[in-house]
Amino acid sequence: MNGAKSLVETLLRSGVDTCFANPGTSEMHFVAALDQAAGMRCVLGLHETVVTGIADGYWRIARQPACTLLHCGPGLANGLANLHNARRARSGIVNLVGDQATYHRPLDAPLTADTEALARTVSAWVRTSAQAGALGRDAAAAVQAARTAPGQVATLIVPSDVSWNDGGVVADPLPVPHAAAVDGHAVESVARVLRSGAPALLLLAGAAAFDEAQGLAWRVAQASGARLMLDFVTPQVQRGRGRLPLDRVPYNTDHAIAALAPFEHIVLIGAKSPVGFFAYPGKPSSHIRPDAQVHVLSRPEQDPLAALRALADALGAPDAAPPDPGPRPEPGRGAPTPEGLARTVAALMPEHAIVSDESVSFGRGFYAHTHAAPPHDWLHLAGGAIGDGLPVATGAALAARGERRVISLQADGSAMYSLQALWTQARERLPCTTIILNNRRYAILVGEYQAVGATPGPTAMSMLDLGNPALGWLDLARGLGVEAARATTLEQCADLLAQSFRQSGPFLIELVI
Amino acid sequence: MNGAKSLVETLLRSGVDTCFANPGTSEMHFVAALDQAAGMRCVLGLHETVVTGIADGYWRIARQPACTLLHCGPGLANGLANLHNARRARSGIVNLVGDQATYHRPLDAPLTADTEALARTVSAWVRTSAQAGALGRDAAAAVQAARTAPGQVATLIVPSDVSWNDGGVVADPLPVPHAAAVDGHAVESVARVLRSGAPALLLLAGAAAFDEAQGLAWRVAQASGARLMLDFVTPQVQRGRGRLPLDRVPYNTDHAIAALAPFEHIVLIGAKSPVGFFAYPGKPSSHIRPDAQVHVLSRPEQDPLAALRALADALGAPDAAPPDPGPRPEPGRGAPTPEGLARTVAALMPEHAIVSDESVSFGRGFYAHTHAAPPHDWLHLAGGAIGDGLPVATGAALAARGERRVISLQADGSAMYSLQALWTQARERLPCTTIILNNRRYAILVGEYQAVGATPGPTAMSMLDLGNPALGWLDLARGLGVEAARATTLEQCADLLAQSFRQSGPFLIELVI
């Protein structure tokens, strides 16, 4: 058995049965091995940023790592931005990077690059496999690393001769470490703070934004008077009827500081203490009150359910039904507004839909108008590197095996970073509905421009303008095999949404805003 | 004056007057400074791989560095693959990477990444500017590094507070180091070898592939009986009538070994000793005869003209007119073939056209049929990271200030890596004609598959297939603002080429092959 076959067999034995790929010469033996080992689903992306973003979306819904297949250092480099996002989202991914043969690398052939250095910038675990006989156990270790709580990016670099040489040995799965134990002192300390009645915020992120943790957090809040909020960079929130109407800490520095100003105590549950996405002249980097005390109830690698359960028990908090979010919204009417679009989506989305939100500037107000929608998952860009929305949607749809509708709320400028994902949606006939929020500019930067105190002149404005020439979204979608239509009103948008939900494949709506 | 203004003014004073940009929040003060300093041309790209590829193409034609403007580590990461190509092409580029404020970086905000580590993988020179007062002289040093022979990638990381703080000082240009001197001993040694009459090859790359160096190399060849060849990875060749009908060392290992087998001596002039792009099982990594002797006449950082002149003088080589390449070809007819397309392009291209060749598998035979075309520059992918063809064409057209027609011979799979470049061509109304060689697959990998000895099964073949769904190239081009038409015969292709050459803006021809 060659190394490549032992790699594929080990992955399957470790429960990794899905591969997102853009292979090259150095991966040919791995690709060949896919046909010799039944059970590995392989999905092609036309650019590595699509491949890695799909892997991120896949993890978020499957809670199982997939592997990527990337070609040499530059192929990995193309996928780094969405691996950065995956790292910030704490998604588990096994990257397989084919590379120059061990004996060929010193010759510095054109595609040779410092693959390990590139990998280390985004990975919790990096290894270059040294020989075919070690590749199986290296793969098992990579899967173990990817599964380590809360989820990690692991990168295994596979020189081509390690793939093609004989001597491959299939390895057994390695045990996944238990999540770090709950810190009893932290629970007691937080319980004491909450009992004091001083204004306190429980800040949720990671798995603390999921259904069951929300229920526990709500018990704590009801028993103690503490407030609940989501970290702005929470990658995934389970929302809608039966869940809590949680808001995120605002993106805008002034708004974030105002939102956090009431709280003397900030209790972190899988979250980090809120800081600005960026610094701005004359404004603080930290968004909490200077005199606020920060308490860590649960770190990201700990189990937030256990911590919240311990806290609820310590407080003697009784069961509490989630608040009634009110009636499901009616669709919006007339010209597209953020609120109207949010209401339209909330009114029409099927049960257990998945929303991939890279709406950037237009979407800041979507939450308030979608609390009363049916239960759904809402996915966010966690690392700030634009271009994850369409790939994450694609990966989420693949993880849901076609059984859940995925709705992308997608800014136009960001969509242009990874529009090739639409082709994979068409190829795999995925139930993905994309709403392109076409404002013909990098609208966020117009706001950022003002926030940093700079004065935009004509050159500056032209750098923020996407309207010359206007991007033809219907043409682009069709060119990638995806049916598409334009909406200029919310009524048209609602009709197209409803139409797309009746279809099995992807659909794109260009919403002119 | 703030740091950003001192940066722009220093760049202008150092002769860097062109900026390719995809900015974000951390670059807003730089963008603002562009409006306060006349003379900096700023061109927007919709993805950083477009931005960096444009900078590579710009250098190749202008022989002057431009700057890029990139947003934080992930923005740089998106541009790394084409910076890898630029590094291999030895192109001079000044990357400006805006980043988190110095005091904000320790807080590990979401977009924070190891920007320096990313930069080092592709750059000969990396610096993070520490304060506004140093930014001017840091910029001058970056330009100096980019201009250092034969051309280098220099990356200056600019924290946002270094941009916005006062205290900026405009710096004078720093002197560019002279190219390393000719090695007289190497000249003598090579002259002795050539006089011996043993079979010898002069292998040219870099500036040795340019017009004047070719003339000197031809004198040497005529006087000594040595043969001439271009390194496969030569980024730019000046070709056509009046230049030499040089061939490149073949890509295919067997063909390369056969082509190099006659030579007991390999004389490198800006080239590296030929090795495989990849290793293949049971085949040698080095493509020269095991008993061949390698002689370095001129390293890439040396002046090949001086070295060749010294060698010609040492041999007493008289002037020699270049060989007559024969009559200009007639356009091809009927179904598209590599030879027919090459003849069609050679028959129709305007004088001093620029060919950006990312034809990959289809284009291996283009050279033989284009020697008798009018004088032109032919640009190649030097680093093997696909996706440089369209951006390099765009940058070349910008460097030529609209005065030269640029023809992209572009494989379909590679085009999908950076198709956003078409939008910049439309926005800047560049005279770029793109021929998409649409074979609906990663054709090169079918060949590579066989070369590594792997057996393709259905999963493997599906990973090489771009036909499901078929990419709609006319739709994609129009969506990006570029007029487009399809050709299924060489006659149609010739008509469309001629039509596009009469227009001032970009045009795309989908050639179904």
Brief account:
Helix content of chain A is 38%, strand content 18%. Chain A is of the alpha/beta class. In chain A, α9 (211-224) links the parallel β7 (200-204) and β8 (227-230).
Present the secondary structure layout.
Two copies of one chain form a homodimer.
Chain A: H1 3-13, E1 18-21, H2 28-34, E2 41-44, H3 48-62, E3 67-71, H4 72-89, E4 93-99, H5 115-120, E5 125-128, H6 132-147, E6 153-159, H7 160-164, H8 184-196, E7 200-204, H9 211-224, E8 227-230, E9 236-239, H10 253-260, E10 265-269, E11 293-298, H11 304-315, H12 338-348, E12 353-358, E13 376-380, H13 389-399, E14 406-411, H14 412-415, H15 421-427, E15 432-438, H16 443-451, H17 458-463, H18 473-479, E16 483-487, H19 490-502, E17 507-512
Parallel strand pairs in A: 1-2, 1-3, 3-4, 4-6, 5-6, 7-8, 7-10, 10-11, 12-13, 12-14, 14-15, 15-17, 16-17
Antiparallel strand pairs in A: 9-13
Helix pairs in contact in A: 1-2, 1-6, 3-4, 3-13, 8-11, 9-11, 12-19
